[in-house]
Amino acid sequence: MEIEVLRSIVGEEDVLTSEVDLIPYYRDHHRDLTSIKHGIRPGCIVLPESTIEVRDIIRYAHENRIPVVPRSGATNFVGGAIPVKGCIVIDTSKMDKVLSINRDAMTVTVQSGILLSKLEKILENEGFILGHDPGSFVSATVGGSISIDGSGIWRPIYGPMRDMVLGMKVVVPPGEVVTIRGVQKSASGFNLKYLFTGSEGQLGIITEVTLLIKPFPKYRIFKIVGFRLFKDALEATKELHYRFLKPDLFLTLEYKRFEAFVKGFGLKKPGGVIVLGFVGDDMDLLKARIKAVLDTCYRHGGFLYPDEVAEKWYQMRHSGYVIKENIEGMLATTEDVAVPLDRVEEMWKRFNRIIRKYSLEKFGICVYNYPLSLSLGYMFPPDDEGIENYLKAKREIVMEALKLGGSTTASHGIGVRNKDFLEKEYGKSGVELMKKIKKAVDPHNIMNPGKWLE
Amino acid sequence: MSRIEKYRFQIETCDNCRCGFCRVDCPVWDIKRTESFSPRGKMQIIRAVLDGDLPPEEKIAEIFTYCTTCGQCEATCASNYGLVHPRSYKELVDVYVSFREFLKDTNPESFKHYRRIVENTMKTGNPYGESHNRFERISDVLNPSKDADVLIFFGCTSTYRVETIARSVASVFKKIDIPYKIMDETCCSSPVFRTGFIDEAIQLMERNREMIENAGCEELVTTCPGCYSVFDEYYREEVGLDIEVKHMSQFLLEKFEDENLWSRMDGFKHVITFHDPCHLGRAMGVYDEPREILMRIPGVKLEEMARTRENSRCCGGGGGFRASHPEDVKEMVRKRLEDAEKINATILASWCPNCILNLRFGETYKPSRLEILDAMEILDRVIK
Ligand SMILES: Cc1cc2nc3c(=O)[nH]c(=O)nc-3n(C[C@H](O)[C@H](O)[C@H](O)COP(=O)(O)OP(=O)(O)OC[C@H]3O[C@@H](n4cnc5c(N)ncnc54)[C@H](O)[C@@H]3O)c2cc1C
Ligand code: SF4
Ligand code: SF4
User: Fold this and answer.
1) Where are the alpha helices (DSSP H) in B216-342?
2) Of A76, A430, B7, B382, which is most buried, counting CB atoms within 10 Å of its CB?
């Protein structure tokens, strides 16, 4: 690799090659990589600032068959941004500008490396909201969220990330820029937008994105309903779905997921809770919606927590991520499978069985609603036995989800962590089709190799 | 066992996580954008060095000069050490400080800028290497008593670099007639400690501890958050100092309340925005007292910048950063001044000689119509 060529594209300072600069790029947030010994040394890091610079890098990489790994916040759980030996890592951290806000069209156009948290702050000052709020809201980016096909807690009203994306610019091999227009609906040709969504950097690099923005809501009301048993919370959840009563934020949690939080309030210990959020600018309308939802919950034995508990939950939603580990020296992980609505309870039972079988510790289940998916959380000690048990449990959990007609992952993606399940989910023909697409777009296999398309 | 080894748990917890919450408001990452300059990157580098996977080469020491010890990473850390350890700020910053110590011990060629600061301080008692008496130029207003309950520690930056602050302290005490003692100060050790020269810092602490104890006062008061945080935390831990330590804002608020001194203030028609010094706010949790005082000056309207209190943007003045990276500091200052401009403040105030020195540094923001003032300078203007 000729470092000088890369320097001539992005500038002297924006190409890193020294060992100490490379070390923090050996891994991303994939939790199985517990030391740099599990990571892979990249060839170099480049930090482009524009679509044109990215295009020139891809052109050079394509001609010289050098692997390229895109990396944004590096917060993905699945090793999607870990390097391959000798690759160029494209760190999008300097592509973080808001290019334009079109108030009348209700759109914002950004460079893909912008942090979700920074973008929301800018939009809020303008009276708007994007509304993608994953647990990694603070440190994940727009480009990474599209590439992984992620979703956040406001999904019932604002949708998962994919629903906010209108258009984008993507650089693909051999170094071309594909432009997808920023309209709210298009039926023209293959839907390239969805092709790139969730492609995890294996087809190209998203450099610019036009997103749908919404008015920042005048009111935001939170409610938390407790249930004696988690099963009751699930029943209430199902009924809310059957009646299509759609709160704007709607999570069903097993108590364990809520425990650390409720402790501080000295409140009653439920088996499960439903966390609800409602947004809008018409209080009467909101009140009517809230009443309909709460009445449904009460019919299943639900009891309401004080409003300040709900407010506090929302304020604290991003903090204390690995508190438990800090205290107990455990590693926490989640399987984010999706199963059909009528199989959720069964999936919960099977998950519990697997956790018991391998003597792991559960930190609870979260059911995300609209669209429906599960987050099954558990912990293991980071020693040989713990890791072995974890790997077995992980496999069984996902396999059970697949047996129930489910999908391997709802938001975390495949990367390297989940690659073994892809064929189980789609069968050979499905995976072959994906590989053909990949080969057509990227014949030299330079884009993020070593992940699930190999 | 070297000091850094004490932090194995924190280092490994982070290295196993790598979630990067800490990056987003780190003032260094903000201007550099590469992982090695981010807190999460630094934690991985530390682990790699401690595990023997990376030799502690010169470049690493260079990277570890890129930290202002502002504690922002700690405040945003998703592992939130703060919930486990009550003094949250110290954990991550102490990791960096201890690693600086480790690096300077393993490589005598490292940290040239720091070594100069330390040498100056050990020789002259102040990091600037000034040889004249620190009180010489304010002797006209300085009026210490032989008998007083309060010992004022002026600190090096106010006496040697922003003399108007030292002068204002003396002047305000004179006007409101509070007796105080002073001592033959030597640097509190903050810059020496925070650059990782801990043994030398402890020598400085010993010198001051003895003088403080000999003064026999009930309270030690300082207007410099760097001094304040070192006295209240490290002096207790390292040299067993046992005296009530207060920041000037805490001390004055009590006095103003007890003796109803508010009525002695002239009007001061300004929109003031308060810049929280990292070592006062995030480090010590003192956010309200300075605001309370400024707000109660007749005519003052206090407006908050977008980044304030726990999330206050570091101006780049701390941790030895200005000495080693003056150009980067200008960029950080520019960003902070922009924050204040955005809300149409007329005065950007702080309560820290080091922040004030830094915000005025190199007249970075000439076109700005902002006046940059220390709260002591404001008080000296308004108290009759
Ligand atoms: C504390 C925590 C909580 C989380 N909670 C959630 C959650 O609630 N919901 C959720 O969906 N996820 C969650 N995640 C996972 C993660 O944050 C998401 O997957 C996120 O979308 C990744 O964004 P990123 O910017 O970090 O991307 P990265 O991790 O850098 O990259 C993700 C993938 O996309 C590729 N890529 C990155 N940028 C580009 C680009 N510009 N063009 C093409 N390919 C690119 C990378 O190669 C990689 O394969 C969480 C993570 C953490 C640490
Ligand atoms: S203390 Fe401040 S400058 Fe240092 S790493 Fe943390 S956030 Fe960055
Ligand atoms: S936020 Fe905390 S745990 Fe996460 S990478 Fe930063 S220092 Fe490590």
Assistant:
1) 225-229, 236-239, 248-258, 288-295, 321-324, 326-342
2) A76
User: What structural domains and CATH numbers belong to chain A?
Assistant: 3-93 (3.30.43.10), 95-215 (3.30.465.10), 219-317 (3.30.70.3450), 321-421 (3.30.70.2740)
* B54 has a chain A CB within 8 A of its CB: yes
Q: Is the CB of B211 under 6 A from ligand 3?
A: no
Rounded CA separation A326/B11 (Å): 11
Q: What is the pLDDT of residue A257?
A: 77
Is B76 part of the contact surface with chain A (CB cutoff 8 Å)? yes
- B245 in Cβ contact with B38 (< 8 Å): no
Cβ neighbourhood burial of B108 (10 Å; 0-12, 13-18, 19+): exposed
Q: Model ipTM?
A: 0.94
| Number of Cα atoms under 13 Å in the Cβ half of residue A424 | 19
Q: pLDDT at position B369, please?
A: 82
Rounded to two decimals, the pTM is: 0.96
Q: Give the E-state strand segments of A34-138 in sequence order.
A: 44-46, 68-71, 88-91, 98-102, 107-111, 128-129
Q: Low-confidence residues of chain A, pLDDT below 50?
A: none
Q: Using a CB-CB distance cutoff of 8 angstroms, which residues of chain B are in contact with residue A18?
A: 59
- In degrees, rounded to 5, the angle at the alpha carbon of residue B74 between the alpha carbons of residues A124 and B335 is 50
In angstroms, rounded to a whole number, what is the distance separating the alpha carbons of residues A445 and B190? 54
Both tokens of B207, joined, read 């010198």
Contacts B20 to A, Cβ<8 Å:
29, 73-75, 139
Please give the helix or strand (H or E) that residue B221 lies within, else none.
Answer: strand B219-222
For residue B49, what is the nearest residue in chain A, using CA coordinates? Answer: A20
The closest residue, in CA terms, to atom 3 on ligand 3 is B14
How far does the CA of residue A140 sit from the closest CA of chain B (Å)? 8
Query: How many contacts, defined by CB atoms under 8 Å, are there between A and B?
Result: 117
Q: How far apart are the first and last CA of chain B?
A: 56
Pairwise CB contact (< 8 Å): B44 & A37: no
Chain B residues with CB under 8 Å of A323 CB are 79-80, 83-84
More confident residue, B293 or B13: B293
pLDDT the model gives residue B154: 98
- Phi, psi torsion values for A247, nearest 5 degrees: -65, 165
- Ligand 1: which atom is nearest the Cα of residue A145? 21
Q: What is the pLDDT of residue B88?
A: 46
Number of CB atoms found within 10 A of residue A194's CB: 13
Structure confidence at residue A317 (pLDDT) = 84
Please identify which residue in the block is written with the tokens 């401690």.
Answer: B50
Q: Whose CA is nearest to atom 3 of ligand 2?
A: B67
A375 close to ligand 1 (CB < 6 Angstrom) = no
Nearest CA in chain B to A124: B306
CA–CA gap between residue B175 and residue A268 (Å, rounded): 57
Report residue B361 as tokens.
């540094």
CA distance B13 to A410: 27
Q: What is the DSSP letter of B362?
A: G
CB of B172 shorter than 6 A to ligand 3: no
The verdict on a CB contact (< 8 Å) between A36 and B80 is no
Residues in chain A: 454
User: Which domains occur in chain B, in start order?
Assistant: 2-110 (no CATH), 118-255 (3.40.50), 261-382 (3.40.50)
